[in-house]
Amino acid sequence: MTSAARFLLSLLGVAMIGSGLEAQSCSAFDIASVKLNTNGGGINPELAPGGRRFTATNQYMFALLMFAYDVSPLQVSGFPSALTGQRFDIEATCDRPMTNEQLPALLRGLLAERFHLSVHRELKEQPVYALIQAKGGPKLHKPADYDAKPDLRQNGHSFRFINAPMSSLVSVLSQVTGRKVLDKTGIGGQYDFTLSYSPETSGAGREGATSPPADGFPTSVFTALREQLGLDLEGQKSQIEFLVIDRLDPLIPN
């Protein structure tokens, strides 16, 4: 599984904490440890039951920025190359309960403290893809279990979405195509579906490619999307908000 897909799982899987806790909830981590990962493994960002302990293990800085600022790697500018391959372990606690909605702000504060992170946002016109309904309409299935936790499972270039909204598909397509994807389908709710393709070389395969390889899947994600899900990608230009990194230093030890 790619790091982008692993982190997408974390975004889908962070636990929701009880709705009655907001008034007494945590505004900053009381105690936090951030270390370079040396043991491998990996735990997606998550709250422990009760909402007082947050952990993230073996995470790239890009993944942490995605979570903290709600951006994709395609929307980050000025990232220092020295941090590209480094992964980090975070363990942080608060005496008061934390909620899912608060975690990005809490993480932003921690990154500013331990990495001197400072950023600003800029709008830039960029080529994008609009995700739209293809002729004949979508081919999506209602979830087999409406109570199931949203999930994404990846096996090579096959992605299985469980109880997932369109935003989950958009996130994957942005990574696969290398271009920001905007949801213009008008489709709400959550669905079970699978998207599979077999590019002849690394990447999504060129737009319009149709020849299937031996396993029967299209070589292009564009064709797979149209045939398997009844959706299409349309090239457009749009103003995209970029996260511009002004400063991001090496980790300050605990």
Main attributes of the structure:
254 residues; four-stranded antiparallel β-sheet; 5 helices; four-stranded mixed β-sheet; alpha+beta; 2 domains
DSSP helical segment count: 5
Strand order, largest beta sheet = 1-5-3-2
Helix content: 10-25%
Described by strand count, sense and barrel closure, the largest sheet is: 4 strands, antiparallel
User: Overall pLDDT, averaged?
Assistant: 86
Helices and strands, with pairings:
Blueprint: H1 3-13, E1 31-36, E2 43-47, E3 53-60, H2 61-69, E4 76-77, E5 87-93, H3 103-115, E6 118-133, E7 151-155, E8 158-164, H4 166-177, E9 181-183, E10 191-196, H5 221-229, E11 231-247
Helix pairs in contact: 1-4, 2-3
Report what the structure shows.
The protein is an alpha+beta fold. The protein has helices spanning 3-13, 61-69, 103-115, 166-177, 221-229; strands at 31-36, 43-47, 53-60, 76-77, 87-93, 118-133, 151-155, 158-164, 181-183, 191-196, 231-247. The strands form 3 sheets. It has a 4-stranded antiparallel sheet with strand order 1-5-3-2. Strands 4-11-6-9 form a 4-stranded mixed sheet. A hairpin with a 5-residue loop joins strand 2 (43-47) and strand 3 (53-60).
